[in-house]
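Methods: holo model generation. Sequences were used as deposited, without trimming of termini or removal of tags, and paired with ligand SMILES retrieved from the corresponding compound records. Each pair was processed once, and we did not select among multiple samples. The sequence and pyridoxal-5'-phosphate SMILES for this entry were:
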Amino acid sequence: MSRNFDEIINRKNTWSLKWDFNFQQHDILPMSIADMDFYSPKAVENAIIERAKHGLYGYVGVPDTFKKIIKSWINRRHEWDIDEEWLLYSYTVTASIRNIIPAFTDPGDKILILTPCYGSFSYSITLNNRELVTSPLILQENYAIDFDDFEKKLSEGVKLFILCSPHNPIGKVWTKDELLKLGELCMLYNVLIISDEIHSDIVFKGYKHIPIASLSFELAQNSITFMSAGKTFNLSGLGASYIIAPNSALREKFKKQLKLTGVHEPNIFGIVAAEVAYSYGQQWLEAVLDYLQNNYDFMSKFFSEKIPEIRAVNQEGTYLGWLDCRKINIDCNELNDFFTNKARVKLNDGKAFGENGTGFQRINFACSRVILIEALNRIQLAVNKISI
Ligand SMILES: Cc1ncc(COP(=O)(O)O)c(C=O)c1O
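and the model returned the structure below.
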C-alpha cells in the first residue's frame, strides 16, 4: 500500500493552501503550511471514489463503526483504552480549539501555553478576548519546560492550559515524566488541560507519544484531548476530527458548545477516509515515517556540514523542522523576508510562534527529497552571498 514518496506531485491549481494561496511568485518553493506533498494511502483514494460514485450527497450521520475504528487505533497506536462514549466529533481541531475557549472560560480569563507554539493557540485565545499567558520553553541543546515559571503562571489565576503534544513547532515528543509533572501542577491549581494531539502519530524511532489523559484516572478526568487522522494520513482538507473527553460533565458542556456553533459533525468524505486509513493505512504510515525521518536526517546533516549558521533543532516528531538561524548575519526581523526573497524558499517566521521564536524559522520537510535538496541548495546559495 506504500506510495512512492520520491514522486514530485504537481499541487498547483488544486486550491492548495501551500502551493496556490500562500505566496505570490511562482518560483518560490513553499515549505510552510503543515500538510504533506504526498498522496494519501491508495485505499483511502479508492474508498472516497467508491463513496463519491453513489452520486447522492445528502445529510449523513456518523456511523457507529467510526467510534470503534478510532478506539481500536488509539489502543493499537498509543496503548490507551478509551470508551467509545468519551468521543465527540468536530469538523477540525481548529474548530475545537476555537470552541473550547468559550466553553470553559469567560472573557478576560487567563489561558496558558508553552512557547514557541503553534500560532492558532494564541490567535484563538485573543480572538475570544481571553488573556494569553505564556511560559517560554528553554533551549539549551534541546528544549525543556521551565517548571518554576509554569507553576508561577498557573498560580496567577490561569483557567485553562493548552498543551501541544507532540509540540509544533519544536518537534518535541513530551516524556512521561514531563507530562506527569505538567499534569500534577495543573491539578494542583485546578486548571483544566486541553491537549492538542493532532501530531501524535508522527513520531520518530526512539520516541513514544503518550496521551496525557492516559497517565491516570485523575488526569483523564481533568483533560480533553483533540485528535484527527488529518496530519497522519494527509487528510486535512476533508474535515473529520474527534475529541476524547472521559469526564462526562466536561463532555456534555463541550458537546453543547460544539452544537451551538454547528461544527459537531465531520464531513462525509472525512469519515470514509479516516475509517479506511485507520483500518488499512498502518504500512503506509510506517513508510512515510521512515521517509520523513530520512528527510530530517539529511536536512540536519546538510546544515551542519554546509550551512553551519543554521542548526536544525533535534526532531522527535512532526514533520515541521525548527531552524535556529540566530547565527546568520541578518536582523532577526528580516529573516523570513530573506528566505522568501533571496533564497526563494517560503518558511514560517519563528516570531509567529511567540517572542522566543525570534531568530528561528519553521520548515515543513514533508516533501519529496528532490524538493528538499532544492530548498537547501537555494538556502545555501543565499547564505553564502551574505557571508561574502
Ligand atoms: C498543533 C496543531 N493543531 C491543529 C492544527 C490544525 O488542525 P485542523 O486541520 O484539524 O484544523 C495544526 C495544523 O498545523 C496543528 O499543528
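The mean pLDDT is 96.
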